[in-house]
Amino acid sequence: MGNSKLESILPALQAIVPALSHDRHKGEAGKIAVIGGCREYTGAPYFSAISALKVGADLSHVFCTQGAATVIKSYSPELIAHPVLKESYDLEGDGRETHVKMLDEVNKWMPRFDCLVIGPGLGRDSFLLECVGEIICLAKQNNIPVVIDGDGLFLVTNHPELVCGYPLAVLTPNVNEHKRLLEKMIGQDSDDSGIQQKVSGEDLPGQLKNLAMRMGGLTIVQKGSEDCISDGHTVFTSDFFGSPRRCGGQGDVLSGSVAVFLAWARNFFVKGSDAAKQLVEERLSKNPAVVGSVAASLLLRKSALEAFKHHKRSMVTTDIIEYLGSSMEELFPV
Fold first, then answer.
1. Which end of the chain, N or C, is less packed with Cβ atoms under 10 Å?
2. pLDDT tens sequence across 271-293
3. pTM of the shown model
């Protein structure tokens, strides 16, 4: 492909992708759940969930509000929609019964999932955000990876304790979301002397490693013209391919893709051969969250490039999703 860095890491990324086989069963290639979708926002959870299927997951669920479920189902019969989330306007009384019932509905499915995507189209209703915070805690109790995007980032920026120190968490902020998160963590760590540490708009990649370290070694994918990925130990820059068109929804495609590759990478580090694991560790990382994030960034950027070649200024997120399959086959051939 004419890029020495890509030629070095691609065999390592290909190693984590499970081979297709007639002996495999439904669900073995990944079961993903998106927590998001409210009466205002239905596109984002759809983009994330359908992208997970297009990358190669077997099953993709969406836990959303009643108003979003019918719309999301109409987009695609491939998605399993659960209309169990509630917002403040749904409540009767103090909401305690609704709160418990909603968490029970999500929790009974939790052991089945290989990764959760938290936040696409979630909205900022206070009651719903409080419940989603508890869903993140349930995922951690079950040792299930979580990818935090969209309004999920608003939640964890205000309550970073939800994810700090959880190595199976991946945050996918854009530049502005990254700056807000950094400001929050600096504010928490400031000493009593009142010294104000300035968050600069420059050299955000240089701040990324420190931020991931401050948050206890979770993985952060800082999205931009280059995607910078760090778990507090290393920083990897994904500058392959890409498109100058920045239509809304690309981050949702990324979140669904990260979920699948993270689930695959995690399984690979348990079941892969010693030689294959050594290859991945030497060329990339021994952290499945980092490896999965690099793979997802590469795939999205390749798909966006192909979509832009054909659609130019009119490119939208559904065009990118259309090219996930062919880009997947070019980078990770069956």
1. C
2. 999 999 999 999 999 999 999 99
3. 0.94
